[in-house]
């Protein structure tokens, strides 16, 4: 008997449908697998201009109902991003699976995720994360692609969608004190652009390990101590990613801020985040997202850049780091240099943080 894989998706443009078709082909390349496309009901929640996104490519794809899901042996769910999360139409479909949750009919079934976003840094990671919670509550097995799509996962010469969480595409159409840790120097370049005279976090890796990683010599930027943070009116923290989260060196520094937390010395101070990752989809969103927790525990005010960087936020002609969470860059294998547009975004972030810090201080 064939293994049944259901590819269930919601789409208002062709991006998700095209990915779904290619995923079906890939699934059926495995002997004994039968993959079927299903679309979720299009309960339109936004009055889009007539003819502006809707595709008729999938007009013959059947609409799925929740009670069809137990018939499958595995799933791959697809959806576009809305403000960094799955589209509400797909969320509504998953919310309707409560009866299946009650009977635990989906527990133990494997599932993957794919998505589309409008542009770079717009939610390819966080949208997938928002869907994983649904799988967990059903007791399903989340199957990421990780980094086994080699060498495609490390593509840096052209804009590419996709993350370790799953396949993805872009639907784009033409229309204070500064604390950071940096191994290869990419974060430091952003730091210097955000504010001259940055203060650095100490290195915790042994020199032998740094040599094997081809890390360049450290600059003469002074090392900051945790108790110095209280002297700032605002802060911007920067670090490279390690497996989608901040580097352990910076986490070690933050762990030493316990006395400041005990005295609530950082409460109310505005703070921003900037970062670097090794590849596209390698943590440009999850790295700052997971760092926000430490700001919240200190009672600090998180200051994102949002989409205030204007048209540059929608750059699709060249590879660009950064997201609404903060300025960012790609280190690649360590040889790639921070681009001009990434430096401009860093400057913009420094300006925003300084402006808001000044307003808060003047109003105090």
TrEMBL record:
It catalyses: a quinone + NADH + H(+) = a quinol + NAD(+); a quinone + NADPH + H(+) = a quinol + NADP(+). Residues 5-185, 176-353 form the Flavodoxin-like domain. Its cofactor is FMN. InterPro entries: Flavodoxin/NO_synth, Flavoprotein-like_sf, Flavoprotein_WrbA-like, FMN_Rdtase-like_dom. GO terms for cellular component: membrane. GO terms for molecular function: FMN binding; NAD(P)H dehydrogenase (quinone) activity. It comes from the Eukaryota. It is an enzyme of class 1 (oxidoreductase). Its EC number is 1.6.5.2. Coiled coil: none annotated. Belongs to the WrbA family. This is NAD(P)H dehydrogenase (quinone).
């Amino acid at each position: 008997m064939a293994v049944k894989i259901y590819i269930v998706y919601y789409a208002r443009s062709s991006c998700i449908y095209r990915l779904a078709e290619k995923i079906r082909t890939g699934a059926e390349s495995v002997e004994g697998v039968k993959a079927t496309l299903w679309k979720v009901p299009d309960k339109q929640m936004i009055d889009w201009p007539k003819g502006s996104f809707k595709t008729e490519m999938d007009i013959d794809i059947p609409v799925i109902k929740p009670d069809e899901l137990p018939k499958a042996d595995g799933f791959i769910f697809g959806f576009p991003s809305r403000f960094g999360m799955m589209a509400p139409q797909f969320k509504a479909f998953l919310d309707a699976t409560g009866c299946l949750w009650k009977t635990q009919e989906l527990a133990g079934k494997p599932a993957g995720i794919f998505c589309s976003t409008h542009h770079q840094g717009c939610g390819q990671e966080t949208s997938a994360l928002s869907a994983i919670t649904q799988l967990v509550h059903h007791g399903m097995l989340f199957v990421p692609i990780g980094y086994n799509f080699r060498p495609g996962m490390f593509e840096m010469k052209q804009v590419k969608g996709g993350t370790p969480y799953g396949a993805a595409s872009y639907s784009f159409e033409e229309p204070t004190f500064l604390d950071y840790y940096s191994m290869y120097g990419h974060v430091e370049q952003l730091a210097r652009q955000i504010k001259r005279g940055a203060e650095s976090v100490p290195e915790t890796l042994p020199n032998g390990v740094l040599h094997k990683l081809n890390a360049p010599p450290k600059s003469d930027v002074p090392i900051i101590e945790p108790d110095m943070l209280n002297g700032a009116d605002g802060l911007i923290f920067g670090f490279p990613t390690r497996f989608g989260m901040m580097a352990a060196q910076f986490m070690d520094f933050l762990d030493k801020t316990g006395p400041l937390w005990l005295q609530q010395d950082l409460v109310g101070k505005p703070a921003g985040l900037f970062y670097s990752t090794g590849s596209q989809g390698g943590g440009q969103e999850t790295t700052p997202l997971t760092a926000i927790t430490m700001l919240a525990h200190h009672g600090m005010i998180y200051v994102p850049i949002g989409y205030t960087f204007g048209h540059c936020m929608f750059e699709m002609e060249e590879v660009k780091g950064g997201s609404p969470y903060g300025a960012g860059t790609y280190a690649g294998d360590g040889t790639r240099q921070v681009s001009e547009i990434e430096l401009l975004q860093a400057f913009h972030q420094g300006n925003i943080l300084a402006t808001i810090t000044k307003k808060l201080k003047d109003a105090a």
